[in-house]
Fold this protein.
Amino acid sequence: MKKTECVAMLLAGGQGSRLGVLTQKIAKPAVPYGGKYRIIDFPLSNCINSGIDTVGVLTQYQPLELNDYIGSGKPWDLDRNNGGVHVLPPYQKSKGGDWYKGTANAIYQNIHFIERYNPEYVLILSGDHIYKMDYSKMLTRHKETDSAATIAVLDVSLEEATRFGIMNINNDDTIYEFEEKPANPKSTLASMGIYIFKWDKLRKYLCEDEANPDSSNDFGKDIIPAMLSSGEKMMVYRFDDYWKDVGTVESLWDANLDLLNPKIDLNLSDPNWKIYSRTQARPPHFIGDNATVVNSLVSVGCEIEGSIDYSVLFENVTVEQGATVEYSLAMPGAVIKKGAKVRYAIIAENVVVEEGATVGCSPEDCGDSADWGIAVVGDNLTIGKNAKIAAGKMIKQNVKEGENI
Amino acid sequence: MSTNNLLGIIFANVHDDLIPELTEKRSMASIPFGGRYRLIDFSLSNLVNAGVTKVGILTRANYQSLMDHLGSGKPWDLDRKNGGMFILPPYSTNATGVYRGHVDALAGTMTFLKRSIGEYVIMCDADVVSNIDVADMLEKHIEKGADVSIAYKYGDLPKNHKDTMILEVDKENIVTGIEVSKTMDTKVNFSLDVCIMKRQKLIELVEEADRNRLTSFAREVFKPKLASLKMFAYKVDGFAEVIDSYENYVNISNKLLEKSSREQLFNRERPIYTKIKDDMPTRYGIGSVIQNSFIADGCVIEGTVKNSILFRGVKVGRNAVVENCIVMQGGVIGENCEVKNVTMDKGANITDGVKISGTDSKYVFVPKDRTI
């Protein structure tokens, strides 16, 4: 069989529990982003743009929507005769089957998939981040330094460093220590969860890790430390463009509104590095006579008669006359009826906000600033007429007319 | 019944000469329309939405932009092992060179017609913008036991067509009379040039007409043969417009600013498919003022846009005013411009500070890739 230099394995099984209702029915990589994308479009588009056309997507939690979305891989040009994109759920083997116990175990269970391509290198990715990155540059660096592993890192502030896995390095960029969320960080180089390994090395450590009953079978907690303590050569690869983890409601909201910030360079239709997505056959959007639309991103199929400011509207959103949407995300198919007010909120797919209802409020208008947060309404729910949803609430069921939450 | 039983034929170059502004470098079928479409998308989607899996596209000239748009047929699900999309360039049978009419064109593609397996054929002209339920039309065609079914609309006759059929129908919508090339001041039932018949019947009619050197289906085949053919007229009630001049192109485009037109044409049950561009959603800047406009993906708008249609990737600079305009893909309107009643073809560029305006009845036309 033809040799493939580098196979990418994309960990897409995470629940993303901190996103609450937004990931109740879908895996985190399937969460909508930027008006027409899903989070997983970023690693998949980065792969094809980097010349990596063999990608295994490891799914586990709520895979239906994600499987459907990936399909044959057509939108990313990943429908290939050799390679292409493959969805890899846990499966039954002759000696019984297991869920993926951890990130390392997920790769371990798919050793056979990787071996079919006989690769020299394996790229490990996650489906949790918004960024544009040329993995081929990282691979070149990995080959030049002849490392066992290369880990992409981002220089963060000292304060943020306490929330990440931190790489402590020598002067030559080799890693001597990995610390998960250190209280007193020695460095500010945070792991981006992007690794390149020599496949024969990774294979050895995965098998050893699997044989260790005390291991949690996780890359960060087990594999990286094991390789370091065996003295393997491990390098950091510095990345300094836009990168955002969208693991929480606030960061998802932030990352969307970053698209409206002229100071942030995040052009997703740059012909040299396009982000691809599966698109719906919908007409252009229409903006009516009484609408005001400022500083916003509006996708296909929307019908806008109301007022939009600093917001991202996904496909097929309707905003009726007199309704206002500010500092918010309205996901596909959402309907904001006459006179409703949506501020500092995330409205999930197909939600109906009835006439006169209010969802969320600005930090200034919120009485106690400690209570302030982004309000979230789960998919397919209805917020009744004149109902009021306070800042920071997460709505999991329909809200009746006039109700205050 | 198996929908594979219906073979699609689209005439891509019909009436190119009626819109010289827009067909200088393209065919009728590839004229941009409605913010993100080309005219052929409507016929092609109508066929695909009825389950048609094999479509022949008859081209004559200027078909590079059309081939570019259609690619392998992916967006219409027509990249197939069985059937799929076939672009049929002119194939001259007689000494006449490129073909003159529908009969001629079909005679040149007889091999395609004969080799296909569908029992029925549907033929469409690319200059019709509509969302027709073709599956329903075929069902009615069979139910009525018709030899030929023709979709029609009740309204004003397209002024510039020389061979549009005016249909006289009975209570059962069976055609009882045909008039061709008549000017009419009143509203009439006129053919939308969407026509279903048995494939075998079409082969017979074309071979006979070709032998007799006939070229027009309407005038020389259907009209004289009405007595021996059972013709059923299928009424189209929704949005259905025939584009037959530049003025008319502008007027029909502007109908998309009415909600009812959009709802009929972009019916969710029967979507209109087009080439995918992977553009970002449109970005509106801090100073943007937008009213009554139909705007596609990938635009960046910082100025004022009113009563206009913007295609994909259009840029409107700060303090620019764009009113009553049709701006095709990649058009750029610089800062402080004032552009009113203008159609900008693909890639046209109005540089900073320029003022240009037409009138309500005559939009100024800026040709493809022109900089002003």
Summary: The two ends of chain B are 56 Å apart (CA to CA).
